[in-house]
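Subject: complex prediction, re-run

Hi both,

The earlier run crashed halfway through, so I resubmitted it with identical inputs.
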Amino acid sequence: AQRVTQPEKLLSVFKGAPVELKCNYSYSGSPELFWYVQYSRQRLQLLLRHISRESIKGFTADLNKGETSFHLKKPFAQEEDSAMYYCALEGSSNTGKLIFGQGTTLQVKP
Amino acid sequence: DVKVTQSSRYLVKRTGEKVFLECVQDMDHENMFWYRQDPGLGLRLIYFSYDVKMKEKGDIPEGYSVSREKKERFSLILESASTNQTSMYLCASSPGLAGFGEQFFGPGTRLTVL
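This time it finished cleanly. Structure:
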């Protein structure tokens, strides 16, 4: 079965501390993975996708096929990073359908 | 800018009422989606559509139906609203290419069923 698991509901760190939001997936093929973010009172939006291998707002995510993980990292958290983060997997149906994890709330304290 | 709009930000309905949630996108996208967003459960797909008049069930279709008569509009219908359908509903759209991945979301409709 295709599944995305985000084990932490809430991650609380101090400003300037490193951040790692965990994401594990279950998928038999070659996965397409994404991180979406929802800031307070804003709509859900794409943060980054693994095929781009880019850094957005200082965040990076590396696909580890051996561990079936796609953890989101940032070396120094900022208060404006506080948001809800969702990891998502594109399923195999060729319809652009995404399977989302449960979400992790990141709280960056001053 | 891709714009996905939803007809209401907040909606309060009574148990048993028929409820319509409307979603419109202005970027000629092929795919449209309806999700529920609940704390601790993430986003769960209710229905999606990859073409006009085409629809497929998602993970939690029970109690819902959809309609897509025009490419830009995707409606979610609660035939007889129940209290367990109180939730945030998100609509999204994406281009028709598999592997493109980016979905564009509307602002959401917070539905309360009393």
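Chain B touches chain A at residues 4, 31, 33, 35, 40-45, 48, 50, 56, 58, 90, 92, 94-103, 105-108 (CB under 8 Å).

- K.
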